[in-house]
## 1
Amino acid sequence: MAEEKLITPGPAGYIPTPGAFMGVELPPPGKALLYGKIVDEEVAMREAAKAMLTRRNPTIFPGPLVLWGWNAAAMEKAKAVLELAMEIPNCRIIPMPDYRPKYPKIDPEAEINPNHPNLTILHNKIEACIFVGVHCHYANLSLRMIRAGTNCFTIALCAEMGHEDAMVSLRDVHAEEIRRFKDVLVQVRNELGIEWEPKLPPENPSLPKEDWTKISPLDFGEYAALLMPRKGEIVEETE
Amino acid sequence: MPDQRVVEPEYLLLEAPREKKFITGSQAFAEAVKRANVDIAIAYPITPQSETMHLVGDLYAQGYVKDYYRAEEEYGAMSAIAGAVRGGARAFTATSGPGLLRGLEAIVSWPGHRIPVVLGVMTRVVNAPLSIQPDNIEISYLLNAGLVVLHAENQQDVFDFTLAGFVISEKVDVYLPVVVATEGFFVTHAKGYVQMPSEDMKLPPRDPYKAPVPPTDCEIPPARIQRDAPVQKSNFMSYLIHAVWQQEVWSANRRAMKWIYKYLGGPVEVVNPDAEVFIVASGCAAAQGREAQRYAEQEGLPVGLVKVKSLRPFPEKEVREALKNAKAVIVPEHNIVGWLAKEVKSVIPNSGIVIDGPRVYGGMTLPVELIMEEIYKALGIKKEKKTVV
């Protein structure tokens, strides 16, 4: 009899039980979580690759830790994420640029937000996704809500200790480990007989074209507020 | 002040040679802070924690602590601590009794704000009429907030729990406040032997970027939870975000357990595991329970002790395992409500074997004889009471 899978794609129901409450423990260094059980990294990577290659609308959700060029390591990690995306057939990238609530105006094609991540998943009919570069607290909120309300297979590429509520959780993942995952994915893709020429995902249609040579805070649109002082700010929408 | 070199937490907590000192519980708090590379300490000193924060103030004067001030009152102290920690500092504060309750609104918001900090709580009674004596009823107010709560039996525990508390609280998978509670006066003002590593070593500084939340970002909740409220709308998504946020706090609380094993040798200490009757106790009551177990052993009675070091996360599995063959469980406590007895009853299948007490409160001491009486009763031993007039 197959071993019981504790953490599986949802919908888990009205209120999800956290993996930690179900006895799922984060893996030690060198190991990974697969359906809530501690396994070898390679095993988890292969299952994650299979999900991204065979389920509908595979999508990568990069968070602030790879989206913004904090340092050389972040930039290298961002490059590795793009290299991974190129190898996944029809992969999309939808960013989680920050964590502030944007209720109720989120554009689910443009971004994903940890306060209601299921809106983006459901709108785009995403059945497999990767979280990378999202701070652990917000990744955990998102993973749990996604498991509660959607049938999405979640994969967490965590730079720290991992996530109980993802179907696949790898830990200590930086640029090098992302490239290693990419290699495993290509191998699984070949084994499945899926033909694919590497190419970048499509541009996010909801985001304005950016001219990085003449950038100013105002070019960031609603995110300009993140860069500019709050003095004199007028809050129009409150309840 | 000697030059302090930074050493790995594992070395400082588990491997470094130790020297024996005879110090008070308050001094033990301060000695831990001295080795913890603390950036800031803020407090509004109230008896019996006053001495601790005075000693930490001395550490500031000596250069061990980088900043220190007295807040307006406890609400201000606990709020300022939250701000300092969100800003990336390693912080320590302490309080007790009514001060704790005054700061409680801020303190219980720390876990949701993911504030890694160490809070010393030197218990004293909180009820009217006012008293400044040790009675640990205030700990019960801390148990349902998501805080990691450790309960120190003696001065050695105070030192070890406090120093390890900084390390545990800053683990990325935990990132919660750690409360180190102990009985005011009985521990804080009394001296005991404490084994400590040399004061020329300290923990590495806090790395605020190794965190499950971004530091000092005032644009995101919880910093802006009142403005861009994800939780103040009346719809299902708002309820759900708050629900999973609470779940995250309590998941983090459970994750602290493996670090309690690593740095404190586990959440319980079991003496005489094959006994028939067990004393389950925490804090100062564990010291009295230890004496009662020793008396019982001298009399050849099958009595064991389960000392609970960690109240949150509560060692459900460990207590259940330790008590699986127990015929009776005695839970001595320094409070009237018996919060530990309730915890123990809730995690074992046969809660009827738990004897509520003995309990003392209002600052009364807990004589070993009171525990012995319960042991005799549990074992069906009749002792004649001697009345000495």
## 2
Amino acid sequence: MKLTVEETEQVYEEPITTQAPMQLNGADVFIETLKKHQVEVIFGYPGGAVLPIYDALYKNPIKHILARHEQGAIHAAEGYARVSGKVGVVIATSGPGATNLVTGIADAMMDSIPLVVFTGQVATTVIGTDAFQEADIIGITQPITKHNYQVKDVADFPRIINEAFHIASTGRPGPVVVDIPKNMATGLFVTPSEDEQEVNLPGYQPTTTPNFLQIQKAAQAISNAKQPLILAGAGVLFARASDELATFAEKYQIPITNTLLGLGGIEGNHPLFLGMAGMHGTYTANMAIQTCDLLINVGARFDDRLTGNLNLFAPNAKVVHIDIDPAEIGKNVPTEIPIVADAKEALEALIALDTPNGNTAAWLESLNISMEQYPFHYQASVERGLLPQQVLELVHQYTNGDAVVTTDVGQHQMWTAQYYKFNHPHNWVTSGGLGTMGFGFPAAIGAQLAKPNAKVVAIVGDAGFQMTLQELSLLQELRIPVKVIILNNQALGMVRQWQETFHGERFSQSLIPVQPDFVKLAEAYDIKGYKIETFEDAKVQLKEALESDEPVLIDCRVVQKESVYPMVVPGTGLHEMIGVKPE
Amino acid sequence: MKRIITVTVINQSGVLNRVTGLLMKRQFNIESITVGHTENPQISKMTFVVNVEDERKLEQLLKQLQKQIDVLKVNDITEKQIVVRELALVKVVSPPAVRSEINSIIEPFRASIIDTGKNVVTFQVTGSPEKIDAFIDLIKPYGIKELTRTGVTAFVRETQKVNTPQLSILK
């Protein structure tokens, strides 16, 4: 007799009720191990293959956030991880549950966000038979995870989970997937020895302490430099080294620029801060890169959006690169002084040395003049209507630069990076490397859970918001006071901008005039909605909305024909920025 | 440039996929690959022959391999004193009339006959890839019916004459 999948499952699956009362199964141990790792919140979505896990969770609860789509769950976990500094934990079922996580896993990989993602899987007895809701998630996520596991023995649960948390959170952080076949979760657990539960990773020994000789070389280069510059990336934030970064820059009087993901690593109004560099960075920061004689990269990876044309990048600079991931050093930019280390340890070592300062006074003076000469600019008028930049300036003003701000990708993201000056680190959550639409809103929910008392503002575009807006249910359910600000230009703004600039104004599939009534949509979820169409309204209503203790949604109808400037056109050097001055 | 790279890995399912997937993702073309476990059955050794554009790409390849959690050791042994061996099985058309002629050709290669049919003979030849190339060239005119090569596996010799270039990061 041939058995169907359902029947084969019944053959091996013992109902839990037949077990001896105290005998633990894999799922029970799974939950216990998460508790040992002090997991305070799980973002997830149940389904067939993870039923035993959700059953164990029912009996031994950990706070669980039921997102309305797995992608929402994982982006929320990313927001939570970024803001809290802890590992984000996600659970989804096999097959479609797992594949719905793929975008979030890839996003976390690109932006080095520590996640441990648990996926259900069909039983080991039917893996490979195209069973119901089977997907090869190990194969699928292999190139987009720091590491992945499939549990093949119930006794391995503690060790695998310990290793997953260790890998996700140490070295260069990243996502780890643990695939759990259903019969592993239901299988009886026989406690392995202490040894067998411990992390055993001979091939994974990240270097955190810098080589002292390299530190001395870097210090010597700093003394000799007349025009040194620090490029600080997200590595500074992951190392919790923003205080050290400021001390280092102040001690040696070196100006700082940030990558997009590094924003917040230095206070937005710090006198040595030149603003963000790169495609839509400040003219001053980009020119500083092009003219510096020493470029000290701390925890950034020389992404193409930062460097512009690599052949023209930082032509006069000697490059020092501090990175915990040796593979990033020399990948894109030849490096004279590589330092493999944790950013905090490397900066502490540099601060501890008593190397004399180079004389940078003239350099700092010229950069200050440039900052005054080339600020970000926009042309506002009552006739043009509400500009996105005006909205962001008001958001900054009303939150005093203290808010946690999340975004998707695109124009609104760049304007936020330009106009929101962060007073504190770890308040900036954006999808940088992968550039994921639909990221910002669920990430804000995770961020708010990490910091319940913080003002959390999700700045999103009208198109990106519609990719994950189902998570409004979470605001309705949890009543957490996330402020959703839609910069609504009825378009895919950045696509529209590129079509205007590079494709002869042929706006192919980038204009979206037909839209839901976002205020009514908010009301459907029992959330207060605002619609703002003028700067005058914005001044009043944004203030009111941002001061509210409730979740709110603000639909800002902004000018469609507005582009992000200045800009480094792809293929050109950073010094060739366009739109530097108002026309 | 052609490089021979050995990778020592923890022997568990998925590790070969991880390593070859990494090479594919980073746009490296694998010319040959051999895998087998070492004296310790929990540890496997892979030998790759890879074509890389330049030093920087090579360095990136070695670092990316080293970064994998299951990878214990990565070595570019191209410029070391090494022993390189490959095995080929060649099925050749060999009617009785030319059989002795073929046998005299294969002798210097120390190839052995491992199967004989009415009109075909299968040879096994081992040695450096160049030796196997030469063998195939010589035997080709008789008509090769089937050919399969294992790809190279390699060892570093006990005594080394030259120092190998190190990663720039270690300099």
## 3
Amino acid sequence: MRGFELVHPASLGEAIKLLDTDDPTVRPFSGGTALMLMMKAGVFQPSRLVDLGGIEPEHAAVEATGDGGLKLGAMATLAQVERSADVMRVAPVIPRAMKRLANVRVRNVARIGGNLAHGDPHMDLPPVLSSLGGEVAVTGPAGERRIAIESLFSGYYETVLSQGELIRQVILPPQRGWASAYMKCTTRSADDWPALGVAVSLKLTDGAVQDSRIMVSAATEKLTRLAAAEAALEGAQPGEAAFARAADAAATEAETIDDARGSAEYKTELLRVYVKRALAEAVRNGAVQ
Amino acid sequence: MNVMRPMPAGQVGRSVPRLEAREKVTGRADYVHNLVVPGMLYTKVFRSTVPHGRIVSIDTSAAEAVEGVYRVVTGEDIRKVVPEPYYGPAFHDQPVLALDKVRHVGEPVAVVLAEDPYVAAEAVQLITAEYEELEPVFDEVEAVTSRAVVHEVLKPAGTFPDLKHLVGRRDTNVALDYQLRRGDVDAAFAAADRVFEHEFRTQQTMHTPLEPMVSLAIPGHESLTIHTASQSPSFVRIEIARLLGWPENRVRVVVPHLGGGFGAKLYIKLEALVACLALLVRRPVKLSLTMEEQFYTISKHASTFRIRSSVKDGKITGRRCEVFWNGGAYADIGPRVTQKSGFTAPGPYDIDNVSIDSYALYTNRPPAGALRGFGIPQLVWAYESHTDLIARELEIDPVEFRRNNILREGREQATGTAMKDAAIEAVLEDIVARMDWSKPFDRGTGPLRRGRGIAIGFKASISPTTSVAIVNVYGDGSSSLYLSTVDMGQGSDTAMAQIVGETLGIETENVKVIHPDTDVTPYDMATLGSRSTFHMGNAVKLAAQHARDQLDALARSLGLPPGTNYGPKDLFKKKYGMQAGNIVGVGSYIPDYKSPDPATGLSDNVTPFWMIGGTGVEIEVDTETGHVRILRMVNAVDCGRPLNPKIVETQLSGAALMQLGFTLFENMEYDNGQVTNASFADYKIPGIHDLPARIENDIVEAEQKSGPYGAKGVGESATFGVSPAIANAIHDAVGVRLTEMPLTPEAVFRAIRAQKG
């Protein structure tokens, strides 16, 4: 029987060295909630798993930055982020989204970094964190770089990370003045993978939309920023008419895909509805002070 | 009764907490999954990747070369143990491992045996097979006329007289053609004011017991012991003995707790395979399926139901039913579903002229069998959707239309059997009253539209079937109940112990229930079709009465006066001079039954009892997305007098929620015969957030006079009305009619769009 090697580096640097190989069957292991399913299904057979559980504890820290933003260590569990008072104050949309993200057992184990690095377009956090203008700090054999989360994904279960690179931290800019919302839609059971996820963030100045970020996931091959929808909102008075224009623009520009959760056609119609609803929800939620 | 303590009274009708609850929640309950015996080999199954094909060759050499592999076995090897290795409850059509042909994707073709289950799993991936692919057929209606033939010749089991005419029939996918003719349907149609015709379809779904199927066979000296998660230990013993040509007493079948069954674990599932393997290699052999493998083992019939009704002066005068059951590649119990449920296809209505044709079809899908309702939910889905459509067309209130046509006590059902102890009206009126049907209803605002719907259904208990029970009173007066009813979560241990307690005048909690072990516990047909409370309940009551009568006789023989204070313990001591002896009470029960006339399907005694169930729902439809939210669900049943009201209530909510999943989203999806969503990641069942906002479960006042203490079965009754009640409510809310399950948001959305043009 083919086994695999499980190694336990004590530092991030050591982990990166262990992952610095061209062999795609060498993979990092953090919470394991996604990887274990792939291994059980026989979709992925590792030769070596690099367990990140023993690296420096600072990589699991969740803290507010002096300027009103957030830093989330990649090894922080989803539950840790969900329960952080700093996160609740700076970005309340995150703990709200967590309530319907997987289940409490998964949230207690899954890590923020793994959640992003997995590249699964059905995840809830990529649209939420990217709508907040989030970036990831990535460390690899060639050093460190920053990537906007909206640019992290290159395709279905694909990211721009190279072999040996690890997400070290998620960095969120100050949210003051931004109003945000995340809505997802399931078409089978309530706890199904979403057929559609929509995350929106609006900056309202003097009663007009000064800036916005509108992200769609799950219904598209990868996380997608809806530029035309954002353009339709720019300078507009928030309200039904403007939101409907943005929704129509979103429905036109998004390339939705067919799967067991619904046809592409239907998901486009869902997107139209949910962009409207998410924008209204963001306004109701109000701007972060 | 005069020798027992009269206290405590009222074991029956008391919500006794389940006897096994503590054992289960503390993780002490026995399951076959946890059973390991010395020398045991684990099995992994190599399965067909094509839906229909001739086996050209199977290459097992690479798997055999893997270190740690004990042996690789194919269908031809099985013949060394059983020359004719075909099994099944209705047809002997299913090979232990595929021979000559494969008939569905996922059919077992070969197995790897190894001491390490991971070695077996790895080696099985190295087996290859070459097939000459044959044209497949997947749709039940196409299967009637398709060129593709799944079985060249029909092989009905000899045990059923009504299947004899099918012996040797060739080149057809129709495994059984059941018919019923009553009155003159054509004349009724000709004389009618209006005639209505609709077609309804249901999808294939799966039981998803959380404990997947598992069996372990241990060869002994001229004997075989099978530990198995089975709902039918007696059948397993009989069928394995038949395959091996052995007497029954050399096969022992032991069944501990089950982690759910719902009909998935009936008849033979893995038992024939582990039995043959154990005898082939002379070592204990265990096979534990994964959740995914269950989807290729058994499922619920997809169906198509064409229904046509004539109405005159608001009364249904004639009804023609054509039902096509998609049985998949092997008959399993499908032919019994076709017939035993088929005769209720016209619904619980008083209709003089009825014609039913019900067809069991072979297709190249995984086999379909019994699933909580035995075909009834598929039928009620159609006839109660149809009933609402007729009422709507005639502009009659759907409740009023049902009242005008309902099958009343004493009237003859389509078979000619008079309705008896069947509270159909009471169930309907209970739901109507609870829903305040006559009061104004909030129709919703904006994109959220509200509607409500009602549906009622009924089922005949499968007949004739036998149950035997033993009550053993020990020397100290304590007692045990020996029975082969399987408690798979439905609470039968508790209910049966209550019957013993009530009859002997002792506390339910003091009755020990001995789980099925065919060396120890007597025969029972199976735990299926809500039959245990009635059949086994009657046998248990007879056994307890028999024990009580013997205790009375013992008291008399010892010269004690009637009404003596001597308890059983004192009697034994007085008789034997010490704590010794037993009183063994035996009860055997089979109800009266008259087999239907093969030509007309008529019988004046077609079932020992009727199960009645209905559901009313209030729903909200999001017209922008098609999402349906159940605001309120009312389930009502006639289960006679409930033995344990709390357990009945959980049976009602469990059955209704299971059917809710089948109604709204559960669906086995296919790509050329391959199930593409065979896991809980992609085959979704209801979770806590899918529950109706409000759910009420009601037991109507009723009594089954022939049942034990007035009781009858209830495990399936709350499934009956759920699907059509929701479809009727969607129609009420947004004016669109869905005729195909599941009622997904996209289906609702598309129907709304189509209506708008």
## 4
Amino acid sequence: MTPKMDRRRLLSTAVLGGAGLVGATALGSLAPEAAFAAEAQPVEPGAPDPNFAEGRISKISAGTLLATGSDGVLHSIRVTDGTSIWKLYPTTFDQVAVGDGMYARGVRLPDGTLAADSIWVNIVNLHAHIAAVGRNTLHLDHKGQRIVAHVVPGLSAAVYNSTPAVSDLSLLKVGRHVQVLGAWHPDTNEISIATVYAAA
Amino acid sequence: MVGMIAALQAPLVGIVLIWAARFKLFSRHAEASARRSALTRLVGENRALPAYRLLGGAELLIGAALILPPVLRLEGVAATTLTVGFLGYLIYAKRAAPDASCGCLSAATAPVAGRSIARSALLVPASLLAAWSATGWWTELTARPVAGAGLLMAELALVVMLSPELDHRWLLPLRQLWVNVTHPLRGGSGVPLLRSVQQLQQSRVFRRVGNLISSDVREHWDEDEWRMICYSARYQGRPATAVFAVPLRAYEPDSVRVALVDDRAGATLVTL
């Protein structure tokens, strides 16, 4: 059995086995004072969030990403064992490529490196109108620009009227307004759809 | 046969001209349409509407003359002049004001495109044939009613197909019907990850451990009727994995379970 399967077996057993049930107090004090004891984040009003970085990835080396922000600032981002990486779906560090865009959230280390908790690669969030519908593609009109959005069978989900997500996108209609979360294909006007939010 | 085809071009050109004239003379939107059209470039802003009305009058006159007896060669010649003029105007409009509407047949704003020019080009040989024909269309139509009516209908259908102004009447409903039949966006089957995450976020256990979670979804897999979703977490100062078991098909946020596991030691820290 591979280490990955071993790990999954361990985790599944832990959550489904039901052994060693621990009460609520194991998660710390329930008293309100506990909430105020936490350290406040020292963020100046109006200043950029120090625990966030975005940019195009220019270099990847040994668990570190170098990214050029849209304001030209160079960010160094450290990827750890505990970092979640999203690239249309939860994936692993080896799927990240030079030229990808990314958003990262984490903790700023004293040397300026961002120790990432979560990285979203090529993520886009668009408000658009559906201009045309094709075989597993949506043509979107986004502020006058045409965007080709690909439906990925098995991955793309639709949320109609804020109800739970479903995999059936066939209720989308030409002319309707949609919000699309997806993964950009770098240097093209194409995206893959993760979620479409629409009224139906 | 050729005589019949030639004779039947007169009503075709006549119908199209009267249709265009009806809009230019009697529509409430004619004024706005004139201002949007490329005529403003050609004759100036102030003279666009009078020119537009004048054109409509000429179209009505020539169209009616083509359809009504008697058959005069002059009618066909006038119609040819008009259709050649339209073709020239459209080509000019395409070059001079590519965004302007042609204002030909309706208030619908459709920039001059290949189809409008093709429609206009179709009317030039039709009006030439009408000028050449010496017999009235009604005599040819009564002589061969089926072939004549079929030809006229086919030609009118071609004009409609070449009219972007009429797309909303037939092309868009047809496309909608096609989409409803083929369902090109059916997508995949199965339960999307987002649905499980939504269920998880509405669960009681997530409210209790949510503040320990530091990352987005790290991995997920399905196990029988459960979907396992893993996050990174911090518990009592040590890194841990928060693994949630979410019902795969049912929507029961209350039956979501969680375990915080220290991966390295392989020890379960908390289960709820």
